[in-house]
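Page 42, continued from yesterday. The earlier attempt failed because a stray header line got pasted into the input along with the sequence. Redoing it now with the clean sequence only.
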Amino acid sequence: MPTIGIIHSGSGVVPVQQTEIDTFILSLKNAGYTNGQGGFSIRPPIPDYANDNPQQLRAHADNFVRQGVDVLVAAGGSISAQVAKDATAASGTPVVFTSVADPVSPAPNMTGICARTVELDPTRLILLHELMPAETTIGALISSRPQPSTQRQLLDNAANILGLSLDYKNIANPGDIPQAFRAWHQAGIKAAVVPANPFFNNHGPDVINHANNNDIAAIYQWHQFVDAGGLMSYGTKLLDAYNLAGIYVGLILDGQQPQALPVVLLTKFEMSINLTTAKKLDIAVPKTLHARTDNLVK
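This time it went through. Structure tokens are written below.
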């Protein structure tokens, strides 16, 4: 029976992350592979979550390589893909990553999904400006866990074009999240971008709560933030990435080599707005945004 190891940068206590894994397993089932019953075996039955600890993430990856899993799935963003690359450099264990920023495979034994993450941060800033045109200073969270080197530059370039100033708050640990939003509230900043970053995904409920409790209009990466009470999001469909990752794992179990499977670039984008949150924040959604929104949460 083939075996699959799943590493994840986040935490299993975040419900949306379990939904992602469920989508992946269902995709494998649709490809003819059932967990157990002679189909495949996930070691352990649930993913190994690292809880934002890169060292723990690497330890999990190394453990799966030692066990000799047939495929290692790197979930939870680019940091997981990088760790999987390093951990499988000697063994050549096939790796499928679920959501990275770079559409180029980092190694011959790796393939997966590019979820268009960091590259859409400037678009999120543009949409937030359309929602809050009177605001000339916009907050922006930033984190080094990990932070692609181009992320801040992309946001700065977009801000310059729009004539905006960005007030960055560096988030090194979860305790920095409430401090950032409290500082913006005290400074009179009413809007903020939550850029693409696995760390913010892993702490989504905290980010949403502190944004809303400090009367700050925030835009996020995935629509799951909006479903959970966040104001607005723009990005690709994350569950599509996990569905495609399941298909790719199935193809590898069928004998395909990772280098023969090109990195899939997601091309479907969606904008979501939570109208209940907008009302609580006393924000009137412009008709131009309302008409273009794919998901209106009431």
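Notes: The mean pLDDT is 93.
Reminder to self: strip header lines before submitting.
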